[in-house]
Write a structure and sequence with these properties.
Elements lengths: L2 E6 L13 E5 L8 E7 L6 E7 L1 E3 L3 H4 L3 H4 L6 E8 L19 E2 L1 E6 L8 E7 L8 E8 L5 E7 L41 H4 L9 E7 L4 E16 L5 E9 L3 E2 L8 E7 H15 L4 E17 H9 L20 E14 L3 H9 L18
Length: 381
């Protein structure tokens, strides 16, 4: 019997930190043309990537054929891939590119990249654009096969980044909540107006191990799924007294879902301070390179990823089954194809550490062996 292989690539929200992978075998009607698409737009990123593969027929081993790049990839110039943007349900395209007052269609360029080895060919074709996308409106993806004339489409509402919140420690109010000084070191952009608060009431302080702490924020319109990461940055100073290696440890929280996609909903995650110290004691030795002279606690970074409702549905449907019933419904928003076209956003802000917190990292029995120094001269970035 002939079979088809739907190739849905792994979801990297390294983009996204949300991951899923699914490879399905099913019956394909003779003569039917279809595509497998993975595209997650993120207006925070400098480059947008759309991955498009063939859905193919084979009489042999589908996974063996998957190693043949020509079987799963379209040829050069075979597809035209575009993005259009619509506002408020309108059927008339509007501006697509921030900074361009006339552009109403983005034509993506194709490139071939090498991927990690596995069941599928490591040679994969992507369609890209460096146009800066808007954080509002609905983008429409149009994939046209130049040879056959067949079109495949998908649409997704855009998501803005999580905005200001008046509760520490995540989103700051600029005039009272200082942020880490530099852009680039942690992948976030410092605010135009730097914070002017003082350490006693504004810096991060996790020096009481019996406490529980929260990271609070508000949901944004069109987003349903949220992922929070607290990233502790530190510097390893080597025995040569010159070399400093910058590193970090992540505390990742379970995903959150908002009740609606209207936005402005209070959301939060919590953790025990003692568990944070235990995490450092466990993970930092794994990241150590060279002979350590001492360590410096640098700053804390708070990251929130938000994903559109269609991405949330896609991830839910593709979760591993927890029962003996393995037949699960497929979800796709690709008209004429399979896969996902969705949107996400990322908010990232760094916060300075209070002196008492820095000292506790040095003194506490859980972390004292890590060699953190006590109060030190401010490091920027």
């Amino acid at each position: 019997m002939k079979t088809k292989l739907f190739y849905i690539l792994p979801i990297f929200i390294s983009v996204l930190t949300f991951t899923s992978c699914k490879n399905d075998l099913d019956v394909l009607a003779p003569g039917e043309e279809s595509v497998s698409v993975y595209g997650v737009l993120n207006p925070n990123l400098p480059v947008q990537n759309i991955r498009i593969n063939k859905v193919y027929l084979t009489d042999g081993d589908a996974l063996e054929v998957a190693q043949d790049a020509s079987q799963i990839n379209y040829g050069p110039g075979e597809l035209k891939v575009t993005l259009q943007r619509f506002m408020n349900g309108s059927t008339t395209p509007t501006l697509t590119t921030v900074g361009n007052s006339t552009k109403k269609e983005i034509v993506l360029t194709e490139t071939v990249v090498a991927t990690a080895s596995g069941n599928f060919s490591t040679e994969q074709r992507l369609w890209q654009t460096t146009d800066k996308l808007y954080t509002s409106g609905e983008y429409k993806l149009v994939i046209k096969n130049i040879i056959s004339g067949k079109e495949f489409t998908a649409q997704s509402l855009m998501i803005d980044s999580v905005k200001s919140y008046n509760t520490m420690p995540f989103i700051f109010v600029p005039i009272t909540y200082p942020v880490h000084c530099g852009a680039g070191n942690a992948g976030y952009v410092a605010p135009t107006i730097p914070g002017t608060g003082t350490q006693p009431n504004a810096y991060i302080n996790y020096n009481v191990l019996t406490q529980s702490k929260k990271i609070s924020f508000k949901s944004v319109a069109n987003a349903k799924l949220y992922k929070v990461t607290m990233r502790f940055h530190y510097i390893d100073s080597l025995m040569d007294g010159v070399t400093g290696i910058r590193n970090y440890v992540d505390l990742n929280f379970p995903s959150l879902t908002s009740n609606t996609t209207a936005g402005n909903e209070d959301l939060s995650v919590s953790f025990e301070v003692k568990d944070f110290y235990t995490l450092l004691a466990t993970e930092i030795p794994k990241k150590t390179t060279g002979s350590i002279r001492h360590r410096t606690a640098h700053f804390m970074e708070y990251i929130v990823y938000a994903c559109s409702e269609n991405m949330n549905t896609f991830l839910q449907v593709n979760e591993p089954s927890t029962t003996i019933a393995q037949d699960k419904p497929n979800y796709t928003n690709i008209v004429g194809g399979t896969g996902i076209f969705a949107s996400t956003s990322k908010t990232s802000l760094g916060k300075e550490l209070k002196d008492e917190f820095i000292d506790e990292l040095s003194n506490n029995p859980i972390t004292t062996s890590l060699g953190f120094i006590k109060r030190y001269k401010f490091i920027c970035p």
